[in-house]
Fold Ribbon-helix-helix domain-containing protein.
Amino acid sequence: MSAVEKRSVTIRGHRTSYSLEKPFYDDLLAIAAARKLTLAALVAEIDATRPRDANLSSALRLYVLEWAKHGTNA
């Protein structure tokens, strides 16, 4: 299993971090490229739509899972 890596991103002028395993990170990069977005823009979009009681890392993983299941915008 892949080790979890912590990464930082700026969302709406606020610096935050998330922790993901490399396969999830790689899939996020691929999704961003497929949607012609920067990774930061995709993360900001996911952050804006996640439930407030869900943490960002979990929301990112769930987004990748939904994308993999449906092959479209999650």
About this structure: Residues 18 and 57 are 5 Å apart (CA to CA). Residues 4-70 form one domain. The first strand starts at residue 4 and ends at 11.
